[in-house]
Amino acid sequence: xxxxxxxxxxxxxxxxxxxxxxxxxxxxxxxxxxxxxxxxxxxxxxxxxxxxxxxxxxxxxxxxxxxxxxxxxxxxxxxxxxxxxxxxxxxxxxxxxxxxxxxxxxxxxxxxxxxxxxxxxxxxxxxxxxxxxxxxxxxxxxxxxxxxxxxxxxxxxxxxxxxxxxxxxxxxxxxxxxxxxxxxxxxxxxxxxxxxxxxxxxxxxxxxxxxxxxxxxxxxxxxxxxxxxxxxxxxxxxxxxxxxxxxxxxxxxxxxxxxxxxxxxxxxxxxxxxxxxxxxxxxxxxxxxxxxxxxxxxxxxxxxxxxxxxxxxxxxxxxxxxxxxxxxxxxxxxxxxxxxxxxxxxxxxxxxxxxxxxxxxxxxxxxxxxxxxxxxxxxxxxxxxxxxxxxxxxxxxxxxxxxxxxxxxxxxxxxxxxxxxxxxxxxxxxxxxxxxxxxxxxxxxxxxxxxxxxxxxxxxxxxxxxxxxxxxxxxxxxxxxxxxxxxxxxxxxxxxxxxxxxxxxxxxxxxxxxxxxxxxxxxxxxxxxxxxxxxxxxxxxxxxxxxxxxxxxxxxxxxxxxxxxxx
Length: 567
Hints:
mainly alpha
């Protein structure tokens, strides 16, 4: 039997590949656009709903936590059931959650529906990468993912601009309905253009106990980190109880994963050096990536007094750097098959970028801020997609879903915890800087007195409505506080450089996952057939070589018997 050796690039033209992944691209575009149109208006949303800085962080954290917990579950399901249906379900969940968010009446309701959004995003992020791996070989994937990354960057660039404009014209609620038409288009395209191989039939076994332990452990950890020092003292009974519950749940989760039939996080994956080091690097990248998306809008609107539209415009250097690096490096990786040098360079740029962001102040010249954002964006663009690529390249097709989703899982978990810790640092720093700045201040008007009372409540301020005497002080506090928060990302980014440096420089395969699965299936059929022939001949005593039956000998015996029958 002849095995399939033709690469995907030879059997599919570029047009056929883009047609096949068109629904995936639009689906990801919906997720990116729906998130970015809201990002620039988030300070306005929280202020309008009367939320605090802690609640601002939880609006982001709730979605990230749901994404993190659901990502490995989606990945495991992708190895067991129809991937196309899973992608459509995740897109529907995300869209429904987004629409409901547009009707939020308070911050708690917004946090709750963000969980639904996060579950949908978890599916899209992991399933799209798995589907692409089934269609395109690792060697060719960089070329296509670079283009896909560019389209995603278009949504990332256009989203903040569109979101700021919509907020200024019609209010922030309208932002949540922008992605609905695109979601409908994506569902139609997925139905008619996406054709994926069916996973091998197997009994679906979901690790429900592991899901509960993971959710409890991470949620409790985030509550402890975000509320410690403000809602309760670090050495209080409440603090100790939360820390113990989080620790016990996480340890129990790890133990359970060793014994269940279908673990959420297969511990066997950590035997793969590439996977383990990629996870470590993903943790570093996740914190930097999510921190910039969360805190840049606050920096521009609260530290520099920009409107949502202006805030969107100001983030363009960051997105241009990320988009340019993603497209250019993706093309170079596909053309030459070399990835490690680019990833090392990107990780170093990420260290430089977050270090520069840690020097921000409210009056830092915008030209310098633009350079800082461009450097950080370029670093993230060179590393993010390639981390998933090299893991897929060094993982067996049978574990493709679990491996891909778990890289995203750890990146999101790290980003979630990192954003929560950084939000806590920001909240404490801002309160300290404002208190110190107002130590000798005496209000001289009712307007100033009302502003001081609002600041004392802990709610996110509307900087544009503050009296000039207080406004500059608040802007300075937020500028300095956001820089303090970025300090946390610097050592993590350094660890990312070290992890990438030790990843094995394995050449990229020219076969996609579906072709590898077919070859493995064909090899298995041949082995089974040879074993059956050998067993049959062995039972009749036809031929033995030192007690071992060989496939070649079996075939020769059969040929000899055929010739004798012909005579």
